[in-house]
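seq as requested:
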Amino acid sequence: MAKKSSKKKKGIKSTNKVPKKSFSTRWKEKWEKNKKSYMFIFSILVFGLFSFWLTSQEFFDKLAQPLLNLYATISNWILLALGQGTRASSESIFSSDFSIQIKKGCDAIAPMILYTLSIIFFPVKWKFKPKGILIGIALLFALNIVRIVTLYLTGKYIPSIFDMMHTDIWQILFIVFTLYLWLVWLRKVNEQEQIPATDG
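C-alpha cells:
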C-alpha cells in the first residue's frame, strides 16, 4: 500500500497582532484619561497639608479664638434651655457640677477646610460650588454645637464614657458626616448637570 504523505503544506500565515505599547505610551494615555482625577487628588493633598500646617501655628490660635467663643456662647444658650444652669466665659462652659473648655481640634476647622477644598478642586462648573460650600460649613458648624452640648452632658452625667465620646465616637462621626455632605453635594451637582436647559 502506498503511504500517504504526512508533510503539511507550508504557507504564509497572516497575523493581526498589535505591537505592544511602551510603558511611557501607556502611562501618557492613562494620564490623559484620568488627568482631572489625579489633579483633584493631588490638589487636595497639597492644600490640605498646607492648611493643617497653617492651623497648627500659634498665630492661628488667636484667629480661631472668636470662633471658639462663639461655640461656647451658643452651646451655653442650648444648655440653659435644657435647664443646666451653665455659664459661658471665653471658650469655656461651666457650672457647679462640671466644666468644659473648647480647645483647638474641637473647632471643626479641619473638617471645614477638607470639605471646602474637596469642592473647590472638584472638576465641575464653579456655579455649583459656593452654595455647596456655605451649606456644608453651616452644617458642620451646627454639628460641632451638638458635639459640645453632648460632651458637656456626657461629662456631667456619664463621666466614665467622656473620653471615648470625645476622642473616638465624635471623631468618627465628623469624618463620616463630612464625607456624606460631600457625596450629597456631588449627587446634587450630577442631577443639575443632567437637567436640560430650556429656552426662556
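The chain has one domain: 36-191.
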